[in-house]
């Protein structure tokens, strides 16, 4: 009788779009899963970590959250792995703590799985040193898990063979966002951190352009918070002849579906996003999405002229696209239905299956 595969994932923090995936993996026959987190949950603090449904550990060390990335360093991950004695180790990036975990696998001959949300597009800014580190880690990993086709392309770029690449999509609880009737309180909704590369001010400029063309005020909901909140409020006041802004601040996971149901179009004008789970939420709520080509969801979850529009960050292009949806009821309803259809492919079960396949492949091929 073979024993379960002891798999340990070393990752950043518990995230609401990954916790259900890990729970499904932990419930899978033949896999004994344990999570190692760099820090306590800060994305969704409403759930007690002891109720996640899997074994977990929290490291200490210093955790730095930045606009686009995070940093963490804790040598104790080496001791923890030595105590847990996993058969397979999965790391989700290349920060110091993850690299220490990777080095542990090399020291003790334990198969390593590289997991990423990154894409070729999102990693264009990497330095030669970042690329070198990735080449070293990927050359010595046994299986690879990506969040999307962009991740698959990234692995291929580094020479990884297709048969070792598995996809574990980023997903949300689609049913939770699709059960509320639309109320159409706002024309546009922006949901996310109020930081420069998310381009929240761009939304207001688009709203002004649409208002001038349609001859009415455009209502915009802002959900979230961040360093640019004062700038957004200031520009909103300057444009109040054309735009009505509502600021909801940070809202809980329970309240989020109501915010999407109260809007018509989701605006995602990011300059950089490996994926963008907010687009999953919007699609599940039946919202067409306007997105820049610099988000991982562009042309995968959000398909141009199917359930949204993918447009360069030029105000007039977004104004034209938004007006099409606001003026053509049939087009809007078709895009809305297509959003729900499209996002149904991105679910927790599919994501868990990809991770399970990677764990089984790494363990099996390392122990024939």
Descriptive key words:
Rossmann fold, seven-stranded parallel beta sheet, 368 residues, Glyco_trans_1, six-stranded parallel beta sheet, elongated, 2 domains, alpha/beta, 13 helices
Walk me through the topology.
Layout: E1 5-11, H1 19-26, E2 31-37, E3 55-58, E4 62-65, E5 70-73, H2 76-84, E6 88-91, H3 96-108, E7 112-116, H4 128-139, E8 143-146, H5 149-157, E9 165-167, H6 174-178, E10 186-191, H7 200-214, E11 218-223, H8 229-238, E12 243-249, H9 256-261, E13 263-268, H10 277-284, E14 289-291, E15 308-310, H11 315-327, H12 329-343, H13 348-366
Parallel strand pairs: 1-2, 1-6, 2-3, 6-7, 7-8, 8-9, 10-11, 10-13, 11-12, 13-14, 14-15
Antiparallel strand pairs: 4-5
**Strand runs, count:** 15
| Estimated radius of gyration | 21 Å
N- to C-terminal distance: 15 Å
Query: Strand content of the residues, in percent?
Result: 15-25%
Query: What would CATH call the architecture of the largest domain?
Result: 3-Layer(aba) Sandwich
User: What name does CATH use for the topology of the largest domain?
Assistant: Rossmann fold
Q: List unreliable stretches of 5+ residues.
A: none
């Amino acid at each position: 009788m073979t024993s379960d595969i002891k798999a340990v994932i070393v990752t950043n923090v518990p995230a609401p779009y990954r916790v259900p995936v890990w729970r499904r993996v932990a419930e899978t026959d033949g896999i004994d899963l344990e999570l190692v987190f760099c820090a306590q949950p800060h994305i969704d603090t409403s759930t007690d970590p002891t109720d996640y449904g899997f074994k977990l550990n929290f490291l200490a060390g210093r955790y730095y959250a930045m606009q686009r990335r995070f940093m963490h360093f804790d040598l104790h991950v080496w001791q923890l792995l030595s105590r847990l004695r996993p058969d397979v180790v999965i790391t989700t990036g290349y920060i110091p703590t993850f690299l220490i975990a990777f080095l542990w696998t090399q020291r003790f001959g334990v198969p390593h799985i590289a997991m990423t949300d990154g894409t070729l597009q999102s990693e264009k800014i990497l330095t030669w040193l970042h690329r070198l580190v990735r080449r070293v880690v990927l050359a010595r990993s046994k299986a690879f898990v990506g969040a999307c086709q962009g991740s698959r392309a990234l692995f291929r770029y580094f020479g990884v063979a297709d048969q070792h690449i598995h996809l574990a999509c980023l997903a949300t609880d689609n049913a939770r966002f699709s059960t509320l009737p639309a109320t159409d309180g706002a024309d546009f909704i922006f949901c996310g951190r109020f930081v420069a590369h998310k381009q929240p001010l761009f939304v207001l400029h688009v709203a002004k352009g649409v208002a001038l063309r349609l001859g009415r005020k455009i209502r915009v909901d802002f959900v979230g918070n961040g360093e640019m909140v004062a700038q957004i409020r200031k520009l909103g006041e300057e444009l109040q002849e054309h735009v009505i802004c509502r600021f909801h601040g940070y809202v809980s996971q329970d309240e989020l579906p109501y915010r999407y149901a109260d809007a018509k179009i989701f605006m995602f004008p990011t300059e950089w996003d490996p994926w963008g789970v907010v687009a999953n939420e919007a699609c599940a709520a039946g919202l067409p999405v306007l997105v820049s080509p610099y988000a991982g969801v562009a042309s995968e979850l959000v398909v141009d002229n199917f359930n949204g529009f993918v447009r360069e960050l030029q105000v007039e292009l977004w104004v034209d696209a938004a007006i099409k949806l606001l003026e053509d009821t049939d087009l809007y309803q078709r895009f809305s239905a297509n959003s729900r259809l499209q996002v149904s492919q991105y679910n927790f079960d599919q994501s868990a299956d990809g991770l399970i396949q990677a764990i089984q492949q790494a363990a099996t091929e390392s122990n024939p």
